[in-house]
């Protein structure tokens, strides 16, 4: 089977509804439909309605959700509310874990709720700088996978995506070398192959991904795509990353 790439842009707390719509319309003009390529953007909740269904080339995801269907959870957004607005949802992003103190168990509940309501979860995992320096990277990531994916079975495995984001490389300008990223991705691939034999679950790399390093990152055997932060906020930069994927696909 040929390679496939998933190129995702996490906009975090940037872009209002009008800016989001303008961006998606502009981005869609920058690349062709190509076999093996999926492009998605993850706008704030307030922009989801504005961008849904704008162009089939640009898929839409949500940055977060709560695990309950409804209830007295002021300020939260349920998976039921996201149906029809988003196809994908990030769960366990390091900013959610660190700033909002989400535990691995919380992340697991979100992932299972996403699957229950027909959303495709992207489970984010990654280590801090002290954990990497202490040689604990693979243990930390495996623990996040073991708890985060607990209870997934059967056909649900085909809906899951994993994103490896070394916390020390997010928004810092530092990034893991392609070799460092591939080492962790290879380990994740082994864990996933044990949990879900026969399923080629995509594993994305995130952490200061830019046009300048994306080609080499995407060239690694076990990197199935990238989760882009700051560079996904500018059409020319995000488009350049997409075109590096197209180059490797021969499109």
Question: Can you put this structure into words, describing what you see?
Answer:
- The protein is of the alpha/beta class.
- It has a single domain, classed as TIM Barrel.
- 39% of the residues lie in helices and 16% in strands.
- The protein contains ten helices and eight strands.
- The protein has helices at 17-28, 48-51, 79-82, 94-99, 104-116, 129-133, 137-148, 178-195, 211-218, 235-249, and strands at residues 5-10, 37-42, 58-62, 88-91, 120-125, 161-164, 203-206, 225-228.
- Strands 1-2-3-4-5-6-7-8 form an eight-stranded parallel beta barrel, surrounded by six helices.
- Helix 1 links the parallel strand 1 and strand 2.
- Helix 7 (137-148) runs parallel beside helix 8.
- The longest helix is centred in the C-terminal third of the chain and has 18 residues, at 178-195.
- The radius of gyration is 17 Å and the shape is globular.
- The two termini are 16 Å apart.
Summarize the helices and strands and which ones pair or pack:
Layout: E1 5-10, H1 17-28, E2 37-42, H2 48-51, E3 58-62, H3 79-82, E4 88-91, H4 94-99, H5 104-116, E5 120-125, H6 129-133, H7 137-148, E6 161-164, H8 178-195, E7 203-206, H9 211-218, E8 225-228, H10 235-249
Parallel strand pairs: 1-2, 1-8, 2-3, 3-4, 4-5, 5-6, 6-7, 7-8
């Amino acid at each position: 089977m040929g390679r496939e790439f998933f190129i995702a842009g996490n906009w975090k707390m940037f872009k209002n509804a009008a800016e989001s719509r303008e961006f998606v319309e502009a981005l869609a003009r920058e690349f062709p439909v190509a076999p093996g390529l999926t492009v998605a953007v993850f706008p704030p909740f307030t922009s989801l309605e504005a961008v849904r269904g704008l162009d089939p080339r640009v898929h839409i995801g949500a940055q977060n959700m709560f695990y309950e269907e409804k209830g007295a959870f002021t300020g939260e957004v349920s998976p039921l509310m996201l149906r029809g607005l988003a196809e994908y949802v990030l769960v366990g992003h390091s900013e959610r874990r660190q700033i909002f103190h989400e535990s691995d168990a919380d992340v697991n509940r979100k992932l299972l709720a996403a699957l229950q309501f027909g959303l495709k979860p992207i489970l984010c995992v990654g280590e801090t700088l002290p954990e990497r320096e202490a040689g604990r990277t693979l243990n930390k990531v495996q623990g996040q996978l073991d708890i985060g994916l607990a209870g997934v079975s059967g056909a649900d495995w085909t809906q899951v995506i994993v994103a490896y984001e070394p916390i020390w490389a997010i928004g810092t300008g530092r990034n893991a070398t392609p070799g460092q990223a591939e080492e962790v991705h290879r380990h994740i691939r082994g864990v996933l192959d044990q949990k879900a034999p026969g399923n080629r679950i995509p594993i994305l790399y995130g952490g200061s991904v830019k046009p300048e390093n994306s080609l080499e990152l995407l060239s690694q055997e076990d990197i199935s795509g990238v989760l882009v932060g700051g560079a996904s906020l500018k059409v020319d930069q995000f488009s350049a990353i997409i075109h590096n994927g197209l180059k490797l696909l021969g499109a």
